[in-house]
Amino acid sequence: MSIPLQDIAAEQSLHGAPKSASAGPPRFSDREWLAQRVGELGEWFHNLDLNGVATAPNHFLGDFPNVKWKHIEPAIPRDLTGAVVLDIGCNGGFYSIEMKRRGAERVVGIDVDDRYLGQARFAAQALGLEIEFQKRSVYEVDSIPGQFDYVLFMGVLYHLRYPLYALDKVVQKVAGKLVFQTMIRGSEDVRQWEDNYHFWEKKIFEDARFPCAYFIEHRYANDPTNWWVPNRAAAEAMLRSSGMKIVEHPEAETWICVPERVQRDGHFIQELELNGTL
Ligand SMILES: C[S@@+](CC[C@H](N)C(=O)[O-])C[C@H]1O[C@@H](n2cnc3c(N)ncnc32)[C@H](O)[C@@H]1O
To answer: Which DSSP state fits 72?
Structure first.
């Protein structure tokens, strides 16, 4: 189910795309016009190549997120014909665009930030790609009907006060694979832990490899929306605890997972937890 480009353009004007000196019919092949519109859409976090115009050429992480994608993309099929994709926290649309370029039938990108959504809509239009961008929080992901062949949940977890609550919702949307990325800090070593420990066993908590998420009370990297930053062991443990099986780890911060035990006795883990019956 896809939306024609003219409808996307109409929706963009309905959502109040910023008025600009370059208002008027789009001139996507005119680099000067493109560069002006890119600038008017605010600071970009995603560096996209829009017909020769880079949206974030001076990104502090380099050519971001291309630098990440080049490690992740071999783990995603080149041909996604017929696939339906959900990109949670889509930002300027980089990953949505890459999935659409691989032939996905339907790509839905959601984000809470109007600036990023405006950028993503503009980028998709400039590249002639039909992608649905919606203003919606990960916490409302269960209001999107159906499940998806690919769910991308990248760069969002550590921005949430309620990370596991969100992850337990996200896994319910995965019919095929989850592509999960989080900032990690602390130990990147993992080892096998016992399923259970005695109440007075305290030493395990001194081991940097024990699953642990650092709580950021104020700010990290000047960003007050960074809340919980897991170490590698915690990121992997949370995925498993939400019922996912890790099948690939294409780069340090990214895991590809399939649903393994997201339901127990026909009920999702979140439902059981919220009912007090997990
Ligand atoms: C660090 S960026 C990651 C962007 C992109 N997914 C990536 O990996 O490059 C975090 C994104 O998550 C979005 N975000 C933050 N809280 C969110 C929420 N509750 N629901 C959906 N998106 C959210 C932000 O607006 C931002 O676009």
So the answer is: H
